[in-house]
């Protein structure tokens, strides 16, 4: 009912399930009650009874060394990349209608429950047609979605995997008012989490936006990078334009290429200690599995505190 005087009558959808899902208040919209109950059972199967339970591990029937020949083509719609990595291609997505540029959900690797987070730049339909497109930037809603998911995983002692492709922040009037606090919450969530944290850089990783996405700087235990990724302070073309202001386009292009090679390549990031291993796209699954196995006994001693400050 229209209980507010002067309300926009043509809208009146703020209690609608689709509206609540898009705004992040609802995690999943089921077709019917049976569908919802099945989703609840599926979720409960992923999470442990409590944070003291020794992992939520089931028997794995998938090949641990399975090669992913199509992974290189899934780096835009990273939901498909996560599905490809997962045991038996099983992915339980959380909040699929909210902040679609940030994918969150649960998978299993070698039978162990893992919380997966990924930056997404495109959404493809079943026919392979792009139906949505996003920039490689962090948004307020995307940061809030990822931060809440990291805190949930940390509460239940569930390890976290991230697929990172980010170059900055969304720039508009609304975002300028909210993005700084949202990014701070995301950064704090990753830094505060004591669970095993692995990051796979699949595209761009620039500046403070990259730092907030589970980087080595805020406590990632292991960082992988694909060979052609770009990791650095800023885009090489922009850096060249700043350093060689007023020079010709030919000089800018030459200096940009030099900067990209010396400062923004995955090799240069590995030399500086920001990346632990450079891997081929088709081998991502087996690498993240051995990394999580290596971190299975991870323990972090933290000072006692009543609650977090963010």
How does this model look, in words?
By secondary structure, the protein is α/β, with parallel strands linked by helices. The chain is built from ten helices and twelve strands. The protein has helices spanning 17-23, 33-46, 78-85, 140-155, 173-192, 207-212, 236-243, 249-263, 266-271, 284-294, and strands at residues 92-93, 102-109, 112-119, 122-124, 130-133, 137-138, 160-166, 168-169, 197-206, 222-225, 230-232, 277-278. Strands 1, 2, 3, 7, 9, 10, 11 and 12 form an eight-stranded mixed sheet that branches. α6 links the parallel β9 and β10. The radius of gyration is 21 Å and the shape is globular. The model has no long low-confidence stretch (mean pLDDT 92).
How many β-strand runs? 12
Strand content: 15-25%
Low-confidence stretches: none
Distance between the termini: 37 Å
* SSE pattern: HHHEEEEEEHEEHEHEEHHHEH
Tell me the count of domains: 1
CATH structural class: Alpha Beta
What share of the residues lie within helices?
Answer: 25-40%
According to CATH, what is the topology? 2-enoyl-CoA Hydratase, Chain A, domain 1
| Apparent shape | globular
Radius of gyration: 21 Å
**Main sheet properties:** 8 strands, mixed
Mean pLDDT: 92
Number of helices: 10
Quaternary form: single chain
The fourth-level CATH homologous superfamily is: 2-enoyl-CoA Hydratase, Chain A, domain 1
Secondary-structure-derived class: alpha/beta
Name given to the CATH architecture: Alpha-Beta Complex
């Amino acid at each position: 009912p229209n209980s507010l005087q002067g309300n926009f009558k043509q809208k009146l959808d703020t209690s609608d399930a689709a509206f609540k899902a898009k705004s992040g208040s609802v995690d999943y919209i089921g077709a019917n009650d049976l569908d919802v109950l099945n989703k609840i059972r599926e979720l409960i199967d992923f999470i442990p009874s409590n944070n003291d339970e020794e992992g939520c591990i089931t028997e794995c029937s998938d090949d641990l060394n399975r090669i992913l020949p199509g992974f290189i083509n899934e780096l835009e719609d990273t939901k498909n990349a996560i599905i490809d990595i997962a045991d038996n291609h099983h992915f339980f997505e959380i909040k699929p209608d909210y902040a679609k540029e940030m994918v969150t959900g649960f998978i299993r690797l070698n039978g162990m429950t893992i919380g997966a987070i990924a930056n997404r730049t495109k959404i493809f339909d079943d026919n392979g047609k792009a139906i949505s497109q996003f920039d490689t930037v962090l948004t307020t809603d995307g940061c809030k979605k990822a931060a809440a998911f990291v805190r949930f995983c940390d509460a239940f002692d569930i390890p976290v995997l991230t697929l990172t492709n980010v170059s900055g922040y969304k720039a508009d009037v609304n975002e300028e008012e909210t993005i700084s606090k949202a990014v701070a919450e995301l950064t704090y969530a990753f830094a505060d989490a004591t669970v095993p944290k692995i990051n796979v850089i699949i595209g761009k990783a620039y500046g403070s936006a990259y730092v907030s996405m589970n980087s080595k700087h805020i406590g990632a235990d292991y960082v992988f990078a694909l060979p052609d990724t770009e990791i650095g302070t800023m885009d090489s073309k922009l850096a060249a334009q700043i350093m060689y202001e007023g020079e010709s386009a030919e000089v800018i292009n030459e200096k940009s290429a030099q900067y990209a090679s010396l400062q923004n390549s995955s090799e240069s990031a590995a030399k500086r200690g920001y990346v632990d291993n450079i891997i081929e796209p088709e081998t991502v699954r087996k690498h993240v599995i051995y990394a999580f196995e290596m971190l299975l006994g991870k323990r972090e001693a933290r000072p006692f505190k009543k609650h977090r400050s963010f």
